[in-house]
Amino acid sequence: MTKHAIISGGSIGGLFAATALLKAGWHVDIYERTEVELSGRGAGIVTHDTLNNALRAVGADLTDLGVQVQDRVAFHKDGSRVATLPYPQIVTSWDRIHQMLRRLVPDGAYHLGKHITGYTQTADNVSALFSNGTTRTADLLVGADGFRSAIRGQMLPDIKPQYVGYVVWRALAHERDLPSDVHSAIFPNFAFFTPSQSQIIGYPIAGQNNDLREGNRRYNFVWYAPAPAELLRDMLTDETGQHHPISIPPPLVRDAVLQDMQERAKATLPAGFVEILSRSERPFFTPIYDHHSPVMHDGRVALSGDAACVARPHVGMGVTKAAEDALCLAKHAATSLETYSQTRVPASLRAHLQARELGSWMLEEDAQNADGSSHVRLTEIMRLTAATVA
Ligand SMILES: Cc1cc2nc3c(=O)[nH]c(=O)nc-3n(C[C@H](O)[C@H](O)[C@H](O)COP(=O)(O)OP(=O)(O)OC[C@H]3O[C@@H](n4cnc5c(N)ncnc54)[C@H](O)[C@@H]3O)c2cc1C
């Protein structure tokens, strides 16, 4: 008889789990708590061979995957180049990958506005519990419900994501809006600016509706900036005075917070990046949290993607890690979730630790390097950022 999996969370991790299980002959149902189809606000995602192979394995069509970049370039605050590393790579967007996977899941199997709060299980089956009081029973439950996972909260109540002391500001500028000098110096490159205690990463991605034509693309601006707990609390407080613990919806970020960020950008960043920022759609920020689960299963329940472990975005492995979880899960789900867990826990930990190390290099204090000219780890940062962690 066909086995049935329930998946909590319909973002990229949930879709990867669903498509891999479908390929392995399972019947799947995804339950996503958000009421409307998800959107990544155009956020950029760096691809790796591992990710591309996983997309092919679940049946995705990789045509027009993204923008090809050739070089990684580190900049001085004065706009000159500090270092260049040839590193051909395709950079794409969260929306593009989400669309590629979403179309592989039948509409009848993707349920919006359904919030899973926990589970019960017997030797024969597992039941997902919904916030409206209903339950659904299946052979397998996958917690792909992100870093604040309700499934992990029940499975591993002691594992709590920890704020790491900095946020990432993200923004997108339309290619056609950039001055020609900024465009020619920065736009085609995977760019870095690595002053003491901060970091910029930037790269081109497709325009609206995956438009890859020159002039129609966008530049993805990513700026890691320290925010001690007290400052973060202020940044997470909206105009009405309401504090949003963990993260704040972008439209609710106060104008004063945006203005303060723009002023710090002017004082810290090369003029070309300040231009990109000033011509971007409303920037938004995400606080960075760490967590890692020592096991990824409990009976018939498995964790995958960010629910199991977060690798900070420095390694650009969030999507790739979720893809590898999914393929491994599909391989072992019918026989041994323990083998799944034993395989994926150490692999996730490697990505998690590499990301933490990159984060710690970024936070190193060095008065000589306020202009980004002399980070002692620059070569390693350029080589290991958004690179596959084996
Ligand atoms: C909008 C968005 C933008 C992103 N941008 C980037 C980026 O630029 N770079 C990068 O590396 N990574 C980014 N990520 C993270 C990256 O996509 C993830 O690391 C990777 O996709 C794996 O995520 P995930 O599906 O495991 O978790 P998430 O992306 O966090 O998704 C979890 C999903 O589960 C749903 N959910 C949560 N709780 C419940 C519940 N109780 N019941 C039902 N559903 C629930 C959430 O609504 C969400 O859709 C982004 C994620 C999102 C959602």
Automatic annotation (TrEMBL):
EC number: 1.14.13.113
Entries under Pfam families matching the protein: FAD_binding-like, FAD_binding_3
Domain FAD-binding intervals: 5-155
GO molecular function: FAD binding; FAD-dependent urate hydroxylase activity
Record protein name field: FAD-dependent urate hydroxylase
Record-linked NCBIfam families: PRK07236.1
Domain (2,6-dihydroxypyridine 3-monooxygenase substrate binding): residue spans on this chain: 163-290
Entry keyword annotation includes Transport: no
Assigned keywords, A-Z: Oxidoreductase
Top-level taxonomic group: Bacteria
